[in-house]
Amino acid sequence: MDRELAVDKPIFQQIAEKIESSILEESLPEGDRVPSTNEIAKFYQINPATAAKGINLLVDEGVIYKKRGIGMFVTEGARKIVLQKRKRDFFHDYIVPLRNEAMKIGITVEELQELLQEEES
């Protein structure tokens, strides 16, 4: 995991996103043990409670699970869960505002598609 944390998002959310990214990149495969809250806290030099809050977000989403006395592990199907979540977030964070701005300035959906296709070339 990258050691850099941003200032524009809560740290616990960034911790969850870093773990999600490791799952998407398959550097943290399904079934593997997730670093403990203390390991994460030490690595990022943050409070263990903050690390635990990030971990608990992923537990609530079904991305990781706890084996009592052993640790946290990546759920089977976690990559699919994270991918669906990231696609949904991408749509709401980027596509909806893009479409709304395009409509304000008179760009049609077809013109947007053409612009995107031009960028691919």
List keywords for this structure.
121 residues, mainly alpha, Arc Repressor Mutant, subunit A, three-stranded antiparallel β-sheet, 5 helices, 3 strands
Account of the 3D structure:
- The protein has 121 residues and is mainly alpha-helical.
- The protein folds into two domains: 11-79, Arc Repressor Mutant, subunit A (Orthogonal Bundle), CATH 1.10.10; 85-120, no CATH class.
- The protein has five helices and three strands; from the N terminus they run H-E-H-H-E-E-H-H.
- It has a three-stranded antiparallel sheet with strand order 1-3-2.
- A hairpin with a 3-residue loop joins strand 2 and strand 3 (71-74).
- The longest helix is centred in the C-terminal third of the chain and has 27 residues, at 78-104.
- It is elongated and about 60 Å long.
Task: Walk me through the topology.
Elements: H1 11-24, E1 33-34, H2 37-44, H3 48-60, E2 64-67, E3 71-74, H4 78-104, H5 109-120
Antiparallel strand pairs: 1-3, 2-3
Helix pairs in contact: 1-3, 1-4, 2-3
